[in-house]
Amino acid sequence: MEKSELRVRWLVLFLSCLLMIGNYYCFDNPAALKSQLQQHFSNIPNARYEFLFNLLYTLYSIPNILLPFFGGVLVDRFGARVMLFAFSTAILAGQLIFATGGNINCDDDAWKLGPLTKIYCATKTEAAQKAATPMSIPYIISAVISPFLGFVVDRIGLRALLALVAPLALTAVHIMLGLTVVNLYVPLVLQGVAYSVFAAALWPSVPYVVQAKHVGTAYGAITAIQNIGLALFPLAVATEFNHDERYIPGVELLFVSFGVLGSLVGIALNVVDYQNGSILNGTNGKKRRVSLMLDEDALDAEALLASEH
Question: Which 3 state secondary structure label does DSSP give 246?
């Protein structure tokens, strides 16, 4: 590979990473602003606010249950470049609309500047700022170690096994958060590691098990299934919270059950992979991908010969 081509590939990879930063920033904005939003809508009862807040994520996810199927087909049809620009434009437009609505603000300063509540409001703001630091830990961990984990996965394989390790680790994370008094940073660091392991192991596995012409559709199907969970689970969290109006331990135990469910799915994935020649767990993933491409070329050649006759 020539140096100029290698530089272009690294540039494309860097720009793709920047694109994902914008995507996740837009998606995670409501979670980071939850307390501020609740203060803004202070006239809404707490239980009602929890339901509406989680409903926001559900409404985002419902159309994305079906749209990724069409998105995957469009990628296979028109190519990644055209559709990447189209999808990025849609994300930008959605965030601009959301930001425009958020800037229409009529907050009253009486509470923030009042003689009896000034210290309380300042302390509350400081607490919210301090809470933002732990929330960023999983993402910082993921940003730092994901490239190295991707390199390791490419070297050793074991993709299905690592996809099982991730939900097991997340189960341990939520057990620590909900049932122990361990230092907060321990489970959050483990959460970042689990997220990185899962992303490095599972998402790149798709090209190893489907033909090249169906990769976009396959990713669309995975994203659609993911959004089914993103649509249902926030409502489940809101329902559990409204039961006793606190997150610990009820909501954390709910997350533990999700982790156990993910672990069972991971076990099933490993069993299926073993029955099909350890495509994901073996170190011959590259050979398998080449084999799929050769099989596809052979089918195309047979179709061409048949058309000539």
Answer: coil
CA–CA distance, 201 with 234 (Å, rounded to integer): 25
Domain of 2 in residue numbering reads as 1-31
pTM exceeds 0.85, yes or no: no
258: Cβ contacts below 8 Å, ≥ 6 apart: 233
Domain for residue 274, yes or no? yes
Q: Domain holding 275: CATH number?
A: 1.20.1250
39 neighbors 112 (Cβ within 8 angstroms): no
> Following DSSP, what letter does each residue of 285-302 receive, concatenated?
HHHHHHHHHHHHHHHHHH
268 and 195 part of one domain? yes
DSSP 214: G
Read off the tokens for 50. 């929890």
Q: Which residues contact 87 (CB under 8 A, 6 or more apart)?
A: 71
Decide: 183 and 172 in contact? Cβ < 8 Å: no
| 50 lies in the same domain as 20 | no
Number of domains in the chain: 2
As a whole number of angstroms, the distance between CA 126 and CA 64 comes to 36
Q: b/e per residue, 11-27, with b = 16+ CB within 10 A?
A: eeeeeeeeeeeeeeebe
For 160-203, the pLDDT digits (tens) are 999 999 999 999 999 998 888 888 889 989 999 998 898 888 88
